[in-house]
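This part of the workshop introduces the protein records we will be handling. A record pairs a protein's sequence with a compact description of its fold. Comparing a sequence with its tokens is the quickest way to learn the format. To make this concrete, we reproduce a full record directly below:
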Amino acid sequence: MRNHPSKNTFEDSLFTLRFMGREMDVRGVSIYDLGLTFVAFQRIVNKTFLLTRSRLDKGAFPNWDERQMLALQIGQRKKASDGYGLIPILSDPSTVQILKFVGEQLMSGLMGYYVQDIMQRLKKEPDDDKRYYIGSIHAEVVNFVGRIDAAGGIGTVEIGAPGIDPNMRVQFSETTKNYVNKLSKEHFLGPKEIIRGKLLKMIPASGVIEIRRAGGGVVKVHVDTEIFEKVRFDKSRSDILEFIGRPIFPLGAKSQKVHELQATDVHIIASEEDDDKEGF
């Protein structure tokens, strides 16, 4: 069943987006700024849903039915401070409950950017999936703060969730923008992954092993002394190294290719060439 926008008020919306600034009482937000903000917010909703289903893997996205369930529409517009109330397109109770639960997790994720303690949260969060989530939504937050002090005259972007809690809201200002942009130099760990390749270089001083993957890409693998010594003494030049660990992503990265890995284990796979020599 579809939700009819006219039946909702701004204060009853599941989520709200408000654009505040000196000129917002006499003009609205440009289509460009609105479009980027709405799309970024929907992407965070989708990512948060995947987090709640333990499916927030690299490159993952909801299936078609889930995207229909998660889709939001503009329910109401509040001209003062140019606010937009967002509601689900589907109005069945189960969809609303799922989106409320997603909304709680979403607002918790945005809170770290609002209070500017993302790196502390990444270090303290024990759950791998949540830690990856906090880092993965950085790209969408960049879109939010990118609207501030641009040509559109926006000074603050506020995101609220009155459908969950009337007091649940975060505000992004010029100070937030500077903080979020600086975070682009920081890194976070992705979900566990297996990387295979042939040895390219070993750097003892930094505990790094460089491998070349089958497609030609080079990965810098950060290892402890035990793994480093195992590779140094137990492998031949033609062996395949299989590292298990977590990719290291820059917070501002737009590519999901793995260039660095924090390894926790290694398996040395003897090449067929070596097997043939032993058999001979």
